[in-house]
């Protein structure tokens, strides 16, 4: 009995250290991040006019989150937060990194430590496949920021899913060399991920794969056969909605191929998978954010709350679901914890690994801040902000509109502004928000 108890204790320690067996085998790790997928645009999150069996299967196979937040309602800042474990403005990416300097609102700080750099001493091979969107400069390309392998697109959005250009520039790369693949970008990224997994099956060292899709971001350009299938199935669907549904279903199919290869290679049983969207859906192209107010680019819930799940066979109980409030930057310490990697620098994210393992993890005792700097005539380089403290949320959704205060427990749709009615609470949150704004203001966000 004593030896049995000892084995149970050792097994528990192995779990907490991210080990799959008592021999100390580390898990492989895959983080799948998709682009502009709305909170209501998966079958598992209530969509009735689309079918996403592969992502839904992921949701069912592990822990689903109902209150997971993107760090920002647009791409680059959220991705910076994920890979650095920090608030995006504290690593120089308060807004979208773009091709043209006059409309570029971020430069990834050279002293920022990215997740693959933390995983390297723990023995991990790290790869990014798909969209990078954290800098075109030589010093900010993925292989200069800790990744061992890059097969993807350096830029932000593609102007065409088949031509793979942005403003006429070619950004497809294998490591740092230009490549010219043919076909739809979603198919290309899925196939490259499949090829990477096939190669890793022959290796002993664990891997970290950051699989970063640009779908279902604009342009809403699904393959013709996928669009036709949706139109035939969904009677009365608008052409706009049908195109987005087809693009999402096509992406889901690609994720299914990746998961099938993971299983086929025998890697699945010891692979920790996280799925998340980088921000909410874009309403004017047909996206749905469910019952949430707002959309991509906005600080209301529809721009920030995103579908997410975590899967690890035998480690994370299947069928789990929770309202635990976590954010994109929390993926960094969670992944590091699963890998047994040491974090020896300051981060803002917190690990939710105990929650995934079924332990009693109390809500994070922290304020959660959201920032975005943007250009164009609407913003002119100004910022929009939000913060959440418990169930209270403070929002400044545009530079021209006043601050608003909502009680999400009583008003999840953010319909009633309480900023004048509850001045005490408003002042409490506003004071904390100002301190956070000052933190970000000390960090350069343009290349000097």
Walkthrough of the structure:
The protein is α/β, with parallel strands linked by helices and 448 residues long. The chain folds into two domains: 25-356, Alkaline Phosphatase, subunit A, CATH 3.40.720.10; 368-441, Arylsulfatase, C-terminal domain (2-Layer Sandwich), CATH 3.30.1120. The protein is 29% helix and 18% strand. The chain is built from twelve helices and 17 strands. It has helices at 2-16, 53-61, 75-84, 115-119, 185-200, 224-233, 239-264, 301-304, 331-339, 353-356, 376-379, 423-441, and strands spanning 28-34, 63-69, 125-131, 149-153, 165-166, 169-170, 172-174, 177-178, 207-212, 271-277, 305-311, 320-322, 326-327, 368-373, 383-389, 392-396, 404-407. Strands 1, 2, 3, 4, 7, 8, 9, 10, 11, 12 and 13 form an eleven-stranded mixed β-sheet that branches. Strand 16 and strand 17 (404-407) form a beta hairpin. Helix 6 (224-233) crosses helix 7 (239-264). The longest helix is centred in the middle third of the chain and has 26 residues, at 239-264. The radius of gyration is 21 Å and the shape is globular. The termini are far apart. Mean pLDDT is 94; it is low at 1-23.
């Amino acid at each position: 009995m004593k030896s049995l108890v000892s084995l149970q204790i050792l097994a528990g320690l192995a779990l907490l250290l991210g080990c799959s067996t008592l021999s100390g085998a580390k898990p492989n790790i895959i983080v799948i991040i998709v682009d502009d997928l709305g909170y209501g645009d998966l079958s598992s999150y209530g969509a009735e006019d689309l079918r996403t069996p592969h992502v839904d299967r992921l949701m069912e196979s592990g822990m689903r989150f109902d209150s997971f937040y993107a760090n920002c309602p647009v791409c680059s800042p959220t991705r910076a937060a994920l890979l650095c474990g920090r608030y995006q403005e504290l690593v120089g990416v308060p807004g979208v990194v773009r091709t043209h300097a006059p409309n570029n609102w971020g430069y990834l700080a050279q002293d920022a430590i990215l997740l693959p750099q933390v995983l390297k001493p723990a023995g991990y091979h790290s790869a990014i496949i798909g969209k990078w969107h954290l800098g075109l400069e030589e010093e900010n390309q993925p292989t200069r920021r800790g990744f061992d392998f890059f097969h993807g697109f350096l830029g932000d959005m593609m102007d065409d899913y088949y031509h793979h250009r942005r403003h006429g520039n070619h950004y497809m790369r294998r490591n740092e060399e230009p490549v010219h693949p043919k076909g739809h970008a979603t198919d290309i990224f899925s196939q490259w991920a499949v090829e990477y997994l096939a190669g890793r099956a022959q290796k002993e060292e664990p891997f970290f794969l950051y699989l970063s899709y640009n779908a279902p971001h604009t342009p809403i350009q699904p393959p013709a056969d996928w669009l036709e299938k949706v139109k035939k199935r969904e009677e009365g669907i608008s052409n706009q909605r049908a195109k987005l549904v087809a693009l999402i279903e096509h992406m889901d199919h690609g994720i299914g191929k990746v998961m099938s290869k993971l299983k086929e290679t025998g890697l699945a049983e010891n692979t920790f998978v996280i799925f998340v969207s980088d921000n909410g859906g874009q309403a004017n192209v047909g996206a749905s954010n469910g019952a949430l107010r707002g959309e991509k680019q906005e600080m209301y819930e529809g721009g920030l709350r995103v579908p997410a799940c975590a899967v690890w066979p035998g480690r994370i109980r299947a069928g789990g679901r929770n309202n635990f409030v976590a954010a994109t930057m929390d993926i960094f310490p969670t992944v590091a914890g699963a890998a047994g990697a040491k974090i020896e620098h300051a981060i803002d994210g917190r690990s939710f690994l105990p929650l995934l393992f079924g332990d009693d993890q109390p809500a994070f005792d922290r304020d959660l801040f959201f920032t975005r700097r943007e250009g164009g005539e609407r913003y002119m380089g100004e910022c929009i902000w939000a913060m959440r403290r418990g169930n209270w949320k403070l929002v400044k959704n545009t530079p021209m509109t006043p601050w608003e205060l909502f009680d999400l427990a009583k008003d999840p749709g953010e319909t009633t502004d309480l900023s004048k009615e509850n001045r005490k609470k408003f002042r409490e949150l506003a004071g904390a928000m100002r301190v956070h704004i000052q933190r970000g203001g000390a960090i350069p966000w343009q290349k000097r």
